[in-house]
Specification:
alpha/beta; Rossmann fold; four-stranded antiparallel sheet; globular; binds zinc ion
Amino acid sequence: MPANQCPLCNDTSPTPYWTTVWNAPGKQVLRCTSCDSFFLDPLETEDEQRKFDTEYDHYIQARSDLVSKYTPQTFDTLVDESIEVRFRDLKQFFENHPSVLEIGAEKGGFLDRIADAAGPTVAVDSCPEYRDVLQNKGYRAYAYTGDLPTGEIYDRICLFSLLEHIHNPQPFLSQLKDYLAPSGLMILEIPSSNDPLISLYNNQAFKSFYFQAMHPYVYSEKAIRMLIARSGMLIEQIIYKQRYGLANHLQWLKDGIPCGNAFLASLFAGRTDLEYIKSLESSGYTDTLYVIARKA
Ligand SMILES: [Zn+2]
């Protein structure tokens, strides 16, 4: 029996959308027809989630093995390139030495990049291996937001590719908001349910790859706006961001595999690819949303 309520907007008519979830036998994907988000069914319990967190490094290794079949690049290189894109897009928010708290800081790739511009920085990551790396780099690092000293406030709180992992997002954001300075900004990057490979192309192979156990939700713009408001915050700005370009999409449509295609990339490099991405971003059909919020 599928869940009879959307955990994000409480609408009572979610419908079955996709029958498989990568690395999670027995789960399916439901789509909320009211807020347009996707969520896994059944959702994991908090205890299952904590167990999952401690094994996250193994999970990432399995995902890396899957992706490495299709690209000569290492998974670490792909992650690093993705952080570089984020840094270029968002560095304007880290000028003039703001204090920064990053939740889900992984190995500190983003914090390293803003180190010169930012003020004091603190990291949270539930994966023990990542925490070791962060601490070896000299960052103050905690496992969970509940471990942060009470009373500390930050000018920027960053959640990059993080919210979609959180099982109970509204209390999580409400509590996190208490760590935000009065004029501070919470900056989120989330996968969007309006990803063109789903919303425009309905690509079956992509769906089998995309929906995975570590992402209980894929948010729509409508759902994230609602969630931010219910958490006592205001949206300052939503930026439509398309990370993957034409060659990546054509490769999914052509062969149903990830990581793009070098020949197609060279054929459509430069203006063609830029214009394609620009068209998607200006129409809101993007794989990613940047969400900038502040306290209400
Ligand atoms: Zn909903």
